[in-house]
Amino acid sequence: MKHVLEFEKPIIHLKDKIVELKKITKDSEIDLHDEITTLEKKLADLEDDVYSNLKPWDRVQMARHPERPTTLDYIDELFTDFMEFHGDRRFGDDAAIVAGIAFYKDQPVTIIGHQRGKKTKENIRRNFGMPHPEGYRKALRHMKQAEKFNRPVICFIDTKGADPGKESEERGQSEAIARNLMEMGGLKVPIICIVIGEGGSGGALALGVGDKIHMLENSTYSVISPEGAAALLWKDATLAKRAAESMKITSYDLKELEIIDEIIPEPKGGAHQDIENQAKNIDIVLNATLDNLQRLTTKELLEKRWEKYKTIGVYNE
């Protein structure tokens, strides 16, 4: 069954009505063409109204949509000859992080991204996209390899957060995240980060220190989930919708605060409605960004990265 978000229910109801009328017209001699045309016009207006006025909580739901394209989906659409590597050479492999090399327009690049599942079995295998410390160490291993061979690094961010379990803490979760932040700050090759779904807490930040940070229009990026913020602020996780309104977690909020660099538009109804078109939108931004970054010397690249993060959080009222 197709997953329907709450704010989309009027749209789905109207679509079902149009399908029903078309079936009646096809199966009988009753001509309902005028009624169908009227409803299709009403549907187009309704979609424009709904998707042009999404609230922060609506975008949270879009970012979490179970059919939303994942890192591997975009790798298939944007890159060629992808070769995935596994393991951190210390503990094991973490399926919540995908890492490997590929060609982007005939140029070798390193790709690293969070990977969640779309079905229950795959979600369990990938820990619902919440990496363990070995996942972050695998990511760092490939970043350092990219630096050695002068390959740009492209990171896809899509996680609720890092795995919070006891075993992860015992294996050094906090240290693994902190080390990635430090190492990415000084990596001598271009780093492009793209938030494609949820960008949650330190779990997202560990892949989020880049020369440029872009976000899909309906993705989110925040230090904590709306549910977590509501639980902390008001001792009531059910007030997540209220928290989302005040947290400034949408792409438009973060663009205004100059935390991200560019908003990548999504098809009407979200990225899951048309992955090919979504990939084309990403491709336009990725290509231009990579071209601009590769024009810089290593010294210029690192200086601009330092300036970028030094000014985040500084603003004038």
TrEMBL record:
Record-annotated CoA carboxyltransferase C-terminal domain positions: 38-292
Domain of life: Bacteria
Enzyme Commission code: 2.1.3.15
Catalytically driven reaction(s): N(6)-carboxybiotinyl-L-lysyl-[protein] + acetyl-CoA = N(6)-biotinyl-L-lysyl-[protein] + malonyl-CoA
Record key words, sorted: ATP-binding, Cytoplasm, Fatty acid biosynthesis, Fatty acid metabolism, Lipid biosynthesis, Lipid metabolism, Nucleotide-binding, Transferase
A GO molecular-function descriptor: acetyl-CoA carboxylase activity
UniProt-listed InterPro entries: Acetyl_CoA_COase_a_su, ClpP/crotonase-like_dom_sf, COA_CT_C
Subcellular compartments: Cytoplasm
SUPFAM superfamilies registered for this protein in UniProt: ClpP/crotonase
One of the protein's GO biological processes: malonyl-CoA biosynthetic process
PROSITE patterns reported for this sequence: COA_CT_CTER
Pathway(s) served: Lipid metabolism; malonyl-CoA biosynthesis; malonyl-CoA from acetyl-CoA: step 1/1
GO cellular component, one term: acetyl-CoA carboxylase complex
Assembly information from the UniProt record: Acetyl-CoA carboxylase is a heterohexamer composed of biotin carboxyl carrier protein (AccB), biotin carboxylase (AccC) and two subunits each of ACCase subunit alpha (AccA) and ACCase subunit beta (AccD).
Protein family membership: Belongs to the AccA family.
Function recorded in the entry: Component of the acetyl coenzyme A carboxylase (ACC) complex. First, biotin carboxylase catalyzes the carboxylation of biotin on its carrier protein (BCCP) and then the CO(2) group is transferred by the carboxyltransferase to acetyl-CoA to form malonyl-CoA.
NCBIfam families per record: accA (TIGR00513), AccA_sub (NF041504), PRK05724.1 (NF004344)
Protein name, per record: Acetyl-coenzyme A carboxylase carboxyl transferase subunit alpha
Organismal lineage: Bacteria, Bacillati, Bacillota, Bacilli, Bacillales
Encoding gene (name): accA
